[in-house]
Amino acid sequence: MKLVLLPAAGSQVYGRVRAKQHQSAIRLWIPDYFDAHSNASTFAYNDGKSSTVAGLNGWVIPELNKQTLAAVAEADPEKRTQLYTQLQQELQQNSPYIFIDQAKAQVVLRDNVKGYQQGLNADMVYYDRVSK
Q1: pLDDT at 46
Q2: Domain assignment of residue 15, yes or no
Q3: Is residue 124 exposed (0-12), middle (13-18) or buried (19+ Cβ within 10 Å)?
Q4: Domains held by the chain: number
């Protein structure tokens, strides 16, 4: 296999991906919601209409669509966890994705700064809780 990497600004990469003009893309993903369906609906669902990662990459997955919808509708927490675990395992084994990194924010604070807590996104900091 021959791989040619084309460096580009994020706006160029995302523009090509959204226009489906790419063969592959190295992209960053940060989970943004504390529920398994946020990731499952992004990576394991493609209804042909929405801009999920699966859809943007042209991955046609009718069986995974059904499994994703079944998982979000499951009321029993243990069964729901099991369904999302199965989806995750399927993605790891048979998807067009290669997961190589997980974003983790590193924040350095002085000893006298108290109450700082970084959320998943940069805008999820509540400065009213910070004291010095």
Answers
A1: 93
A2: yes
A3: exposed
A4: 1
Residue 108 domain-assigned? yes
Instruction: Give the angle subtended at the CA of 17 by the CAs of 13 and 19, to the nearest 5°.
Output: 120
As a whole number of angstroms, the distance between CA 12 and CA 19 comes to 11
Q: Which residue has the tokens 């994020």?
A: 10
By the 8 A CB rule, do 91 and 99 touch?
no
Q: How far apart are the first and last CA of the chain?
A: 55
A 10 A CB-CB count for 57 gives 18
Q: What is the pLDDT of residues 70-83, one digit of tens each?
A: 999 999 999 999 99
Q: What residues make up the domain containing 116?
A: 10-129
Would residue 46 count as lying in a domain? yes
pTM score, whole prediction: 0.69
